[in-house]
Amino acid sequence: MTGFDLSAILTNPEFVAMLLHGIEMTFVIAIGSWILAMTLAILLLALRFSPGRFGNAFVAGYVSYHRNVPTLVQLMLWYFGIFTLLPDWLTYWLASHNAEAIFAIIGLGLCQAAYFSEDLRSGLRSVSPGQMEAARALGHGYISAMRFVMMPQGVRNALPPLINHSVSLFKNSSLGVVIGASELTHAVKEIENLSFRTFEIYLIGTLLYLFFSLLIMAGGAYVSMRADPATRARA
Amino acid sequence: MINDIVAIFHDYWLLLLIGQYPNGPLGGLANTLILSALSIALAFPLSILLALARLSKWPFLRWPVTVLVYVTRGVPLLMLILWSYFLVPLLTGADVPSFVTMLTTLVVYQAAFLSEVVRAGIVALGHGQMEAAKALGHGYFGAMRFVILPQALYNMIPSILSTFVSTIKDTTLGYVINVPDLTFAASQVNNQLLTQPFQVFLILAVIYYAICWSLTHVAYRLERRITRRRAGLNGVRAATVIAPVKIISEQL
């Protein structure tokens, strides 16, 4: 084993291509599951606030399951378990369309939806009920009052946890390696097996993850600043 | 389906509980709990030191710890596990069992997270406590030991418990370096049966759910109790006090 040499990896076109593909898949998984999670979170929130006991109990159960079972176990249940129960035509279709990535997106998205919906809910709960009453008094309907008065304030309150959980979601995309999705951690392990330069490739992988996580945190800080009326004028 | 699950549970409950223990290393649920408890027990004192270092007025103490906290927050746990898997045997020069590798990773990882909780707890107490303690003749360490930490740590008990829960969830990642824990035992069962992966992983999910749900529930009860005590409302009925939900936990 020779000394520390980053260029052995960074000048090898094959390794660079693997890394780039890994980054691409990481973003496909992270962004895909983020969109799925946010959509579901808003639906769950609507169910939570809808009249009737059933919706509330369903959402409480959903959130409880996804927060108390390790994300990795959820992914395993999806990929090793539920995948085998699907009808044949769907299995074939999935197998020919990168099933690993699809199940990583589904598993992570469903799990994250629980966190996002709780963040949004606590954000909304901290908006004073008087806001709703005032909006209704001004002639807004329920949906319209939610859309124009409650949600903008609720989302603003919920921004810090939402950003934290978005960073966690990005980091959790690395769990895809366990079910064989070819994302960044997978690329790092492959390159390690091919080049035997463990230290260098781990360093590159770590720095890439760190860079993107810090970028998301910085982006989140910027969005929070823009969303806060007190600092918006200066931004 | 239900019959299958009952049959699997009936045949393999011992493997899921203690792994291959008498004939092999301790594994299964017992190992998961031991690993989590050990990591928290070691991470907790470390986190206090890290928090004090981050609050210190000397940059050479503050900076490295700040970097450590940001790195552990910005890098996936899986990546850190791969690092320890590579570095721990290299640094110790010995063939280290995967249990120790996982323990090292979790201690560093959770200490970094807990240190933020401890720091928040200390900052939340305000300057007054420190100034009062110093005015009474305590030095820095005396004030920390007898005035600041007892208060900060007492308020932190629920956070520590919820960190314990997330540690239990984190131990599942030991699967990638073959730590013989509950997840590993379940995948062994799955490899023996081959035909019932859904049932096996459903059992796994249910066991984790039962443990983490109960511990989260205890944390919540403790938090309400501590909030009430802090507010000086020991004898007041529960319904009159609404506890803010502020359990800090890193999700995994």
UniProtKB/TrEMBL annotation, chain A:
Keywords: Cell membrane, Membrane, Transmembrane, Transmembrane helix, Transport. Residues 23-220 form the ABC transmembrane type-1 domain. PROSITE patterns: ABC_TM1. Pfam families: BPD_transp_1. It is a multi-pass membrane protein. The chain crosses the membrane at residues 25-47, 75-95, 201-223. Belongs to the binding-protein-dependent transport system permease family. HisMQ subfamily. This is Polar amino acid transport system permease protein.
From TrEMBL, chain B:
The chain crosses the membrane at residues 33-53, 65-86, 106-126, 138-157, 198-220. PROSITE patterns: ABC_TM1. It is a multi-pass membrane protein. Its main location: membrane. Keywords: Cell membrane, Membrane, Transmembrane, Transmembrane helix, Transport. Residues 29-219 form the ABC transmembrane type-1 domain. Belongs to the binding-protein-dependent transport system permease family. HisMQ subfamily. This is Polar amino acid transport system permease protein. It comes from Rhizobium herbae.
